[in-house]
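2024-03-11 09:14:02 INFO worker-7 job=invfold-0412 stage=load source=structure_tokens
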């Protein structure tokens, strides 16, 4: 089963502090059909203005992953501004127990980033943070695991549940395939460009929810960036 979730079907929060698009139920967007997707509990596309802040709040039981498209974001909480990510980087914050977590934009331009919260089975005793790179131009047209709990996914940021996060940078008219474990669910979101999935066309901000699919093949109509979250079945 593949379900297209177009950009205009998502929730939206827009005020002087943030402009956010919600793929899953979040804040005032409480569509019962969009509550979680497996262990993926939050997927937001955020624009945070210069010096803007999402105040730190208690966050337990999840890993927090941020993919920065433009600008810079920093952790608002115990790690302080040294915990940050810039354009093209991915930041993982694993909160441990009772930690507060938020985001702050220390830059002079808006920060554009995707925020994922992924349910964890067991968190570390102490909070931790790490950064890595989104697939670079040297990794074009290949599926790259950027976060995973499994040691065989070398170089990936270490999650604490049963979810694997893939990403790809795809050239125009090229294809990339993702293979999933039996019984997994998956959610894809287009970060840039246009893609074909079977008979479906996806543009920037569109999502695609999948269940009982063993593989996903994407054909780029333009140069495109894609994020694919493979998670456990409900």
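2024-03-11 09:14:09 INFO worker-7 stage=emit residues=234
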């Amino acid at each position: 089963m593949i379900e297209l979730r177009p950009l205009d079907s998502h929730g939206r929060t827009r005020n002087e502090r943030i402009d956010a698009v919600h793929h899953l139920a979040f804040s005032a967007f409480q569509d019962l059909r969009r509550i979680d997707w497996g262990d993926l509990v939050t997927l937001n596309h955020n624009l945070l203005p210069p010096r803007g802040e999402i105040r730190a709040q208690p966050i337990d039981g999840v890993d927090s992953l941020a993919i920065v498209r433009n600008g810079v974001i920093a952790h608002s909480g115990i790690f302080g501004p040294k915990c940050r990510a810039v354009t093209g980087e991915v930041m993982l914050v694993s909160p441990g127990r009772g930690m507060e977590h938020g985001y702050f934009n220390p830059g002079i331009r808006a920060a554009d980033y995707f925020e994922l919260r992924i349910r964890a089975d067991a968190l570390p005793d102490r909070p931790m943070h790490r950064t890595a790179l989104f697939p670079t131009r040297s990794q074009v047209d290949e599926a790259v695991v950027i976060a995973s709990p499994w040691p065989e996914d070398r170089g990936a940021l270490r999650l604490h549940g049963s979810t694997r996060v893939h990403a790809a940078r795809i050239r125009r008219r090229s294809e990339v395939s993702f293979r999933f474990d039996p019984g997994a669910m998956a959610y894809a979101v287009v970060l840039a460009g246009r893609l074909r999935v079977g008979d479906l066309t996806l543009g920037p901000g569109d999502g695609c929810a999948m269940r009982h699919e063993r593989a996903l093949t994407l054909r780029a109509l333009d140069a495109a960036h894609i994020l694919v979250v493979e998670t456990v079945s409900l």
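2024-03-11 09:14:09 INFO worker-7 stage=report msg="The domain at 11-133 is CATH 2.60.120.10 (Jelly Rolls)."
2024-03-11 09:14:10 INFO worker-7 job finished
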